[in-house]
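Late entry, evening session. Most of the bench is empty. Finally got around to the prediction I had been postponing all week. Sequence below, unchanged from the version circulated by S.P.
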Amino acid sequence: MTFPDIPRAIRAAIVVVDPDTATPQRAIVMQFNPDSLERSIQPQAAGGTADASGSGTDGDRNEALRLKGPAEEQWKFTAEIDSTDQLDVAAPDGIHPQLAALEMLLQPTTAQLRESIEATRRGVIEVNPIETPLTLFTWGNKRIMPVRLTEFSVNEQAFDVNLNPIRASLSIGMKILTVSDLPFGHPGADLYLAHLAMKEQLAARGSRIGG
């Protein structure tokens, strides 16, 4: 029996995007939405901090209300993966594929590593750092932002007879990438501006805080 009037749950996801064409390449959808999110926001203040007496220099006072750029924002959450919750889906490798998809967000590919090694062998003086795909984190339709994973730890909690992990808890940390982090004209910079514009629209509606 189906209930068409009940809205379908929206899943959080990490979307991998080609940095040159802004074309989505694949989406890593959370099996279960995290129960909580921890967010920290640090402003990029132009002025210095006051000394122990509470006073500062004239320069600090002149810069007290100025910002050098967008605030630095960090997100942390815990996600769960459980292949036993999907008994109708064949999982000969357990949850290895899901874990590998997330881990590869932090790793260069073998092709990129071979290319870098070959460039070094040819005597290239300066080898450019390896560029990874643009990564977006989506949490509903009001939070779509470019991110870089800064933390990823796995607690594997159950295994099948072949020692494939079948259940795990993931701790994921990410930094929101802003226009200060990305090159001029990068698709991620436009996506960040769209994310910030959504915050501005929501802020305009939030005229009251608390009860």
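Two things to note before I forget:
Residues 18-44+69-121+146-203 form one domain.
Residues 22 and 187 are 6 Å apart (CA to CA).
Will write this up properly tomorrow.
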